[in-house]
Specification:
By secondary structure, this protein is of the alpha+beta class. The chain is built from 3 helices and 8 strands, in the order βααβββββββα. The protein has a 5-stranded antiparallel sheet. The longest helix has 20 residues.
Length: 142
């Protein structure tokens, strides 16, 4: 069994500008409202750390995903695992749709024997993705 969550947004900046900000993990708390702390860098095979709020009520999530794939200005993927053996692969697709327009698709597929326990949290994860992407858009377009 798997659970997939996907959201997208259009940002009125070039894909190169958006990519540069997105890769600056240490600056994420200023960019993404649901990131409390973060450190590290985006490098294939390496882990970075982020602390998220708002996904699970009254809890902070401290995650350390491993970067799986990076294709500059186009694609980023990482894998993480959480409580109860639930694993997730999170993909970000960056697409230039005009001179200064970038579409970002954020998709995560959750799997594991107990993934059905996460089903009630799906709407909260979707909301977290929306907040994450909107924060990036607001930061980029200010």
């Amino acid at each position: 069994m798997q659970i997939t969550v996907e959201k997208e947004i259009i940002i009125n900046k070039s894909v190169q500008q958006v990519w540069k900000v997105f890769l600056d993990v240490n600056n994420w708390p200023k960019v993404f409202p649901n990131v409390i702390d973060s450190n590290g860098s985006i490098k294939v095979g390496k882990q970075f750390r982020m602390v998220l709020k708002g996904t699970i009520p009254f809890m902070k999530l401290d995650v350390q995903p491993t970067v799986l794939h990076v294709q500059a200005n186009k694609f980023l993927s990482w894998r993480g695992s959480g409580k109860l053996g639930i694993k997730g692969v999170h993909d970000f697709i960056f697409e230039s749709i005009g001179k200064n327009k970038t579409k970002i698709v954020s998709r995560e597929v959750f799997a594991g024997k107990l993934v059905f326990l996460a089903r009630p949290l799906r709407s909260r994860v979707e909301k977290s993705f929306e907040v994450h992407l909107q924060g990036l858009k607001d930061y980029m377009e200010k």
